[in-house]
Amino acid sequence: MKSFECESSSEGDEPSIYPISRAIAAPPQWLRGNATPSWGWPQSGASSSAGGPSSSNMEPVGFTPFAHHSNEESQIPGRRTPLGAVGLGGFQFQGPPSDENNPDPAGPPQSRSPQNRTMPNSQVVQGGKGKNRQGKSVRLNINARERRRMHDLNDALDELRSVIPYAHSPSVRKLSKIATLLLAKNYILMQANALEEMKRLIAYLQGTASTAAIVAPPGFDLQGFPAAAKFLQQQQEEGRNEGSSSASSGNPL
DNA sequence: TAGGCCATCTGGTCCT
DNA sequence: AGGACCAGATGGCCTA
Q1: Could you say which nucleotides of strand B lie within 7 A of any protein CB atom?
Q2: Do residues A166 and A183 touch, judged by C-beta distance below 8 A?
Q3: Does residue A120 surpass a pLDDT of 50?
Q4: Do A138 and A132 contact (CB within 8 A), yes or no?
Q5: CA at A111, C1' at B16: how many angstroms apart?
Q6: Interacting residues of A252 by C-beta distance below 8 A, sequence separation 6+
Q7: Which nucleotide is nearest to A29 (CA to C1')?
Q8: What is the per-residue pLDDT for A46?
Q9: Is A123 helix (H, G, I), strand (E, B) or coil?
Q10: pLDDT (tens digit per residue) in A230-248
Q11: Tell me, in Å, how far CA of A55 is from C1' of B4?
């Protein structure tokens, strides 16, 4: 691979810190501030990556989860054309006007970036031997397919960006590919953790519904469940009131 | 200016 | 044979 490799996260232990992981753990400035979700970036030493974020931080602020902002993306600095600007088939080639590489006979569309990209390799490497004589059109077809494939991949990444909560804002730069993948992974871990906690809470409430006093079990963190905490508090207060009013009966509930 | 990120081209490998 | 997938190489843009 290249200089960055994702941690082999199949093991649950502490992932080794590759350069890219450090970059994610300490996101660049354009991702800090409002852009940084409270759950997204693995905290060094905190129980974020494997165990998920602390439940007290589960309420991210500054963004709208699951909101699609493809229109806003057009204003975000970046090189890729927003999804809405291109057809379903992905991006059209926007290279130099020369192009035999242009699969669109109608001519190259407006370049998606201010500059017209040059295609340095297309001519240089072709100057070789008979192998390249397989036919220019064949090679160009292969190139077009590969381009389309990469565009599809980027479209999928855009869709992934649209469903992971982070600051979708014109002033916030688009997540990089690797950041998108790592953020999505952390989001999945967080959701799984929240689901587990919810299951435990439901099981506990069901188990104590018929008993006298409802008390949070030792070690159970209710900070992430304000509604549940409020409910328990109400139950305890009601229990106390009834206990005082019907002290003669001695019935705790 | 260096480094990060990206798009594209290219050749190799595997699969149908 | 043709297509999908992959990784290396290259060069451009942007930001600190």
Answers
A1: 4-12
A2: yes
A3: no
A4: no
A5: 36
A6: A212, A213, A239, A242, A243
A7: C16
A8: 32
A9: helix
A10: 777 777 777 667 655 443 3
A11: 33
Task: Give how far Cα A226 sits from Cα of A58, A143, A165, A235, A253, Å.
Answer: 11, 55, 21, 14, 23
Please give the protein residue whose CA is closest to the C1' of the nucleotide B8.
A119
Using the structure, give the distance in angstroms from the CA atom of A215 to the C1' atom of B16, rounded to a whole number.
62
The residue to which tokens 């188990």 are assigned: A207
**Covered bases, chain C (protein CB within 7 Å):** 2-16
Q: How confident is the model at residue A196, as a pLDDT?
A: 95
Interior angle at CA A188, CA A183 and CA A189, nearest 5: 95
Nucleotide in closest CA–C1' contact with A117? C12
CA–C1' gap, A140 and C9, in angstroms: 18
- List the single protein residue with the shortest CA to C1' distance from C7: A1
- Whole-number Å distance between alpha carbons of A83 and A69: 10
Residues 6+ apart with CB under 8 A from A71: A82, A84
Q: What length does chain A have? A: 253
Q: What does the pLDDT read at residue A137?
A: 78
Helix (H, G, I), strand (E, B) or coil at A233: helix
Instruction: Return the structure tokens found at A42.
Output: 């693995």
Closest CA to A162 of A82, A106, A55: A82
Assigned token pair, A115: 């500059």
